[in-house]
Design a protein that fits this description.
145 residues; alpha+beta; Nucleoside Triphosphate Pyrophosphohydrolase; eight-stranded mixed sheet; 17% helix; NUDIX_hydrolase_dom; hydrolase activity
Length: 145
């Protein structure tokens, strides 16, 4: 019997403070090292995407976000290096606790940047997702020929 195809599911947080978004400088992960990304991670089995986002925000930035304060802004079907993923980009502008780098072995810094003036070195798929959120594009693809 043919094995059913399984796809990765990831969540990305656009944590907003006014017109600025929180980015983290990736390191030692094997993906996008030296580039800025969003607080993000994979969805565990048996976990809602919104619960995964709350978990990742706490694991990576030490903050608590209420599920009701998350807004799914864009869903992206991505392929990179032959691996497919569904990415949920979520917006939040309310949180509890001070932001702090909880994973210094994977993140050199957490810093807010003007959403309309992001650094050049942003993970390309993340930049695409952010642009989709800014433009009101609720579904997009990335990496397909």
């Amino acid at each position: 019997m043919k094995q059913r195809f399984k796809m990765r599911v990831a969540v990305y947080l656009l944590l907003m403070k006014g017109d600025s978004v929180l980015l983290h400088l990736r390191c030692n992960t094997g993906y996008g090292d030296g580039l800025y990304g969003l607080v993000a991670g994979h969805v565990d089995g048996g976990e809602k995407v919104t619960d995964a986002m709350v978990r990742e925000a706490q694991e990576e930035a030490g903050i608590v976000i209420d599920v009701s304060d998350l807004k799914i802004s864009c869903v992206m079907h991505r392929i990179e290096n032959g691996v497919e993923a569904i990415d949920y980009f979520m917006l939040a502008n309310k949180w509890q606790n001070e932001i702090r780098n909880m994973e210094p072995n994977k993140c050199k810094e957490l810093k807010f940047f003007d959403i309309n003036s992001l650094p050049d070195n942003v993970v390309p798929a993340v930049r695409h997702g952010i642009n989709c959120c800014l433009n009101g594009t609720v579904f997009s693809t990335f990496g397909w020929s």
